[in-house]
What does this fold into?
Amino acid sequence: MFDKATRTVNTAVQPACDAFRFGNRFVYTWPWHRQSCAFGLCGGMCLAVLDYAAAGITPPQRREPPVPGTPLHRYLLRRQLDSWRYGCAGPRTLLWMALSDAEVARRTLERELPKVLAGLERGAPQLLVLMRATGWDPRMNHQVLATGYQTGAPGEPI
It folds into this structure.
């Protein structure tokens, strides 16, 4: 798949300047529940980064996640829901969770990785779902934005 030459591919979206500065942990407190719960909005954060980059705007540089109910939080939550509709990610994730680890690895290497690399080579950041090796809780999976890749000869540090 890769030749022995080192190759670097980057998109215009770069985490150092285009990413949010706060972590993917949003705390919710409900009046009928004594404990707070924390959830992530990783897919919403990824799509929002793409939105900001497309508009030529730097995302808010705040260090703390937005409080639930604020405009930025509502926007991230809306984009989180969009991330599950993007490419049928929600149903596909549930389907892939039912597959064996070997089948997930095979499909990833044979089908998905070539599409991701081709998209990056076209300059398009790629939204990825990182699957857990075990378990059935889809909330334990994670969405990330691939903005580039680097290859090198086998055994060589890159």
Observations:
- The CA atoms of residues 66 and 73 lie 5 Å apart.
- DSSP finds five helices and six strands in the chain.
- Helices lie at 15-18, 42-55, 71-85, 89-97, 101-121.
- The longest helix spans residues 101-121.
